[in-house]
Protein: NodB homology domain-containing protein
Organism: Baudoinia panamericana
Amino acid sequence: MGKKRVLVGYGIDVDAVANWINTCDGSPQNPTNVSRGVYGATVGIDRLLKLYDKYNIKATFFTPAHSIESFPKQLAKVRDAGHEIGLHGYTHEYVSQLSAKEQQAVLTRSIDVLTKFCGKRPLGYTAPAWSTSKELIPQLEAEGILYDHSFMHHDVQPYFAPDNSQTWIETDISKSADAWMMPMTKMRPSKVVEIPANWHLDDWPPLQPIPGRAGAQGFVDTDVVEKLWLQQFDFAYRECDTFIFPMSIHPQVSGKPHVILMHERIIEYINKHEGVEWMTLSDMAKEFLEGRMPGVGIEGGADL
Ligand SMILES: [Zn+2]
């Protein structure tokens, strides 16, 4: 076993009201759901700031521009405590549902809002609901964004995000088999660092119910979630001398009392390990870019 270096951090999606009012077709939202978002922006943020202060952790708050404009006092507390503020769309709209032009309009506006609020350009991005598009990485690259946190090519290593120029043929059984029996073409790396996303390190599906949506059951015992997250940490610690461990949470989920207690246990467990360093996701990306964290290369696809 070599000397360990483990970069651990929290990416906090400050969805607040934005994810609830993103009804996609403009249909009205139930005000009780909107109030859950207000809880996140107020009670949730305050409790997370206290948690990070207690353990001396700097985290990354991915914040829709709508949340900054609607809750400036709360986001000022985040900014002034020295945490990173990253991009997360305007109103949590799904990139996968927008045209390339509308994706760019949202990116331009949200970069502008964050730059004015923070006094510097944002370095990182995470796609609302990790619902991405082929245009996303090229647009982030053109804007000079250092890193993304939306893709899942790996779970515990940083890498350069593929530029998504590779093509694949979806299986369409209304056509002859010869029309779709084709390999994916070769992936090519972009200049954007990927700090990978991971649904198994996300608090929303197990801990926040959305009635009627099976993927957000929401009533899992935090002991079960803690075990699921820490088993991933234990495996990576056993297998890798160097790795990253980014966890994704939401103030309206992790601000709940029982979930704060879970995070205290997780942080204290991780802190018992040699070589652990807590940092923002942009600092993880810089460690990789500047050669201090080896990471991996993502390969695959056929040369056609
Ligand atoms: Zn989100």
